Amino acid sequence: MLKLIVCLDKNNGISKNGKLAWNVKEEMEHFRKTTLNSIVVMGRKTYESIGRLLPNRKNIILTNNKKLKIEGATIMNDYNEILKLSENNDVFIIGGKEIYNLFLNYCDELIISRLKKDYECDLKWEFNDKFFQLDKTIKNKEFSIYYYSSLRHKVIDGKLISENIIKKLVLKNKALIKKYKDIPKLVIIYIGNDYGSSVYVKNKQKLGQRIGINVEIISKPKISQNELLSLINKLNKDKSVNGILVQHPLPKNIDEELISNAINQNKDIDCFHPENLGKVFKNVQPKYIKSIPCTPWGIIEMLKYSNVELTSKNVVILGRSNIVGKPLVPLFLKENCTVQICHSKTKDLINITKKADILVSAIGKANFVNSKFIKEGSIIIDVGINRLDNKLCGDVDFKDCIKKASLISPVPNGVGPMTLAMLFANLINLYIIQKQEKI
Ligand code: GUN
Questions:
Q1: Which of 270, 382, 395, 397 is catalytic?
Q2: What is the tens place of the pLDDT at every residue in 235-280?
Q3: 250 CB under 6 A from ligand 1?
Q4: Where in the chain is the domain with CATH 3.40.50.720?
Q5: 160 compared with 212, residue with greater pLDDT
Q6: Is the CB of residue 381 less than 8 Å from the CB of residue 369?
Q7: What is the pTM of this model?
Q8: Is 265 in the active site?
Q9: Is residue 100 a contact partner of residue 78, using CB atoms and an 8 Å limit?
Q10: Which atom of ligand 1 is nearest to 423's Cα?
Q11: CATH 3.40.50.10860 occupies which residues in the chain?
Q12: Residue 246 CB less than 6 A away from ligand 1
């Protein structure tokens, strides 16, 4: 088993005077104990600090240590050799970001040490703290060690996958701007003053700007249905506008169906228009498709990025909404899955969910799905966005289900960022359609 210890301070966990940052006695003691029967791999600098605290160890391997001669220590600079060793031994590797980059994909357990709580770290996986933290030995203001388990490999990192998609969108958008000499434009209409919605709208604006898209927000604390319809009509006709998004939920005085129908099909980046949605259900040829429902599309992409073979899988979806549950059906069918939707009136729910190879939950009930609902080795996709004790959480009891699942998407940083990325993928596709059709 390969275990990796990463120190996220600038000096790989060693302060400038060469002293090991693990100045808390108990921390060091813990390290000594945990590595006693393991092979410890470290670089020269680390050895100079930590080596003296591990006396009489024959199980130390040094890397990059041309200058350093230590009796009894093996020298190994080829990381493949180190990987080979870990097939039959417990190997601990200690180092900084370089070590992390080299070994992360191979390691079964990750231990991260941080010098300061507020240490600014540009590594994306920092957010994962809460999910993989199995045990926190000692913590003081200066220092803490976090233990991460191999369970981390089961987590579908939606944020990371969405970043890959966004990078491609940035390039595609650049090429399109060059070709058509026109920057795509999205208009977001935000009605009311719901705090959550205002955050989502700002996130959409930020991402749009990153991709190189003009995002205009029209904010209306109050608006009548007719006024909203005329505003949409005006934007439909405006040739400089390529996409229109009316942020949901809408206030009670506004009929959602009327609004979805009013948006020009060629500017419908949500795929809420019944005709656009109908084409998805009919599984028409791609050339007739205008947009694809963002969350369902994000889920399929997420699974494909995670190398999940979808053909013949039994999929169970919890929730029959028009935004997630229902449109997921044609997308999974297209991938040759067998699909079943469950809802509040479904009988023997657990008997159905337990048969699912892939379980998608989109019901909006915090921690509703626990390990009793799922099959060993199944894939769990959590679409829920709930608040529990003022914290964001999904429909799935993550800690309980991760043990049984083979893959699981977390909340936050699972489906959410994927939805956002697909929204802009739709916008760019619609922009192309508009340019080609000269609409
Ligand atoms: N509210 C929360 N998510 C979305 C979304 O993707 N589109 C729209 N229109 N409203 C939302």
A1: 270
A2: 999 999 999 999 999 999 999 999 999 999 999 999 999 999 999 9
A3: no
A4: 295-408
A5: 212
A6: no
A7: 0.74
A8: no
A9: no
A10: 6
A11: 158-291+418-437
A12: yes
